[in-house]
Structures are given as C-alpha cells and as structure tokens.
Amino acid sequence: MTTTDTSTGSGTGTGTGRVQLALNVRDIEAATRFYADMFGVQPAKQRPGYANFVVSDPPLKLVLFENPGAESALNHLGVEMASSDDVVAATRRFTDAGLAHTTAEVDTCCHAVQDKAWVEAPDVPLGAWEFYTVLDQEPATGETSTSTCCAKDSEGDTPCCAGNVASV
After folding, report:
1. Euclidean distance between CA atoms 114 and 26, whole angstroms
2. What local confidence, expressed as pLDDT, does residue 157 receive?
3. Number of H helices, E strands in the chain
4. Confidence band (pLDDT; 50, 70, 90) for 15?
5. Cα dihedral sign for 111, 145, 130, 135?
6. What confidence score (pLDDT) does residue 165 get?
7. Which helix (H) or strand (E) holds 29?
8. What pLDDT, on a 0 to 100 scale, did the predictor assign at position 140?
9. CATH architecture of 17-136
C-alpha cells in the first residue's frame, strides 16, 4: 500500500516545499540529540545510522547519515516537494531552462519510496540537487534503487544512504 506524506502540504500540486539539508555525522545518537534540542522537535524517522527531522520553523527537512569517514559534513542538498505533480512541474522547469536532469519514479532510497528528479548543479555534493516527494514512509523492503542518492561510488560507498541500506 502506498501512502502520501502530507507533511509538506496538501499534496495537490501547490508548489509548497521545504529545503532539505543532508549531513554526514560521526555519531548519529549525539547528532540526533543535538538537533532535537536545537530545533525543539524529535526526529520524524529514525533507523540505524539514520535520522530525519521535519522542522516547521524554519521550514527544513534535516537528514542525518552516520558516515564517520565522510570527507565533508555536507552530504547532499534537496527540496522536499508536496506531491508528485510538484516534482513533475520542477522537471518541466528544468527542461524549459535547458538544465540537465534525471528522474526516478517510485524510487526506494533513504528509507522511503519517492518520486524524484536530480538537476545537475556545479559545486554541490553529488553534482546535483534532489527534488523529491515521499510516496511511502515505510517501504515493505529494505532494497534500494541505483538512483544518484543511493548509487555506490568508486570505493563502494553509498554517498547519502551511507552503509544503511541493502546493496544495489
């Protein structure tokens, strides 16, 4: 059964979204406590080596990946959209502007099922911004796709899902 995450809006193509900041952290438990205290909210989802927060003020989706060997604290940047229609609209905007991008529908990554687009961007982690909507917060399987977010790099590491998802 697929459910729509309504935490970002009504899911009616309103264009309402929030910036996503995904960080690599050395100690997931310490980082989770720190950000819960700092923003005054508990994690919306926690898994081994993973936590995410839905912060309403300021509007932010904060994602933490336990990745002590990461070269940078910044994992990737994204925009969580209210609906698949919003992801499609963003994709049209990228096409109209001549921006290189890829899409993935019903993509299982980072402990959720998502529709997403990655738009190539200079000087950002993974070389792109992720625009996505969550279709299902609790996927039935632990498998992940080979999308940009969960693709293994040349050293066999996954850049944002870290080592916390099934092998692709």
Report:
1. 26
2. 44
3. 2, 8
4. low
5. negative
6. 27
7. helix 28-39
8. 63
9. Roll (3.10)
Tokens at 90, concatenated: 């963003």
Q: Is 112 helix (H, G, I), strand (E, B) or coil?
A: strand
Cα(146)–Cα(158) distance, rounded to whole angstroms? 10
CB 17 within 8 A of CB 77: no
The beta strands (E) that lie in the chain are given as: 17-25, 45-47, 50-55, 60-66, 74-81, 101-109, 112-120, 128-136
Can you give the residue ranges of every domain in the chain?
17-136
The percentage of residues in the chain with a pLDDT greater than 90, rounded to a whole number, is 54
Q: How far is CA 1 from CA 67, 112, 125, 135, in A?
A: 31, 13, 33, 10
Round to the nearest angstrom and report the end-to-end CA distance of the chain.
23
Specify whether the CB–CB gap between 61 and 78 falls below 8 A: yes
Q: What are 101-158's pLDDT values in tens digits?
A: 998 887 777 678 889 999 999 888 888 999 998 888 776 655 544 454 554 343 444 4
